Amino acid sequence: LRIAVLASGRGSNLRALLEARDRGELDAQFVGLFSDKPESGAVRTAREHGIPVVAAKPRDFASRAEHDEFLFSRIEAVQPDLIVCAGYMRLISEAAVRRTTGRMINIHPSLLPNYPGLDTHARALAAGDGEHGASVHVVIPELDAGPVLAQVRVPVLAGDNADTLAQRVLAREHALLVETVKAIADGRLRLGADVIGYRDAAL
Ligand code: GRF
Predict the structure, then answer these.
(1) For 146, which of 61, 140, 153, 198 could close a Cys bridge (C-beta 3.0–4.6 Å)?
(2) Which residues pair with 54 in a beta bridge?
């Protein structure tokens, strides 16, 4: 399976995928790491693993659409079977999302449809939720709103703050993302506008 990864941060989800590949658990070729943050840990990790990197700062582009066009034309050029957003912290324009035809997934630190967007751990704590978690979903133009492929539930513990909860969730995200990508790699899970049953409106 040819996988392109989009990431902006430390890259622990990227690393989890690479470690699964190195353990022989995941039959995948990583065809590129695409980032808005050239100095990020994810970029460094990709380079350490010999994965081609395309990093482009949004401020070097006149608009969001041009920055997306730069990245997504280069993503298309490596012909991925799957695009994984692993901590990509930019809103992706509708035009760019449509180009991925239901083959882009995202890992989000909440039990969707609860808490789309940012600061999910603080919001779950503020709501007094007894559990929180993470979701892998198909990316559609609306933020954090596409069909959920897999979820993991994580207990909220007494004395938790946003950091301790985020840490507990992040540890479980790695296995969730790896298991979902493995299912896609071995055909147990099929993606694509046709399979997900998207009408044109969504994609
Ligand atoms: C993860 O919590 C992910 O769910 C969210 O951003 C974080 C990325 O972490 N989208 P990392 O860069 O993979 O360590």
Answers:
(1) 140
(2) 34
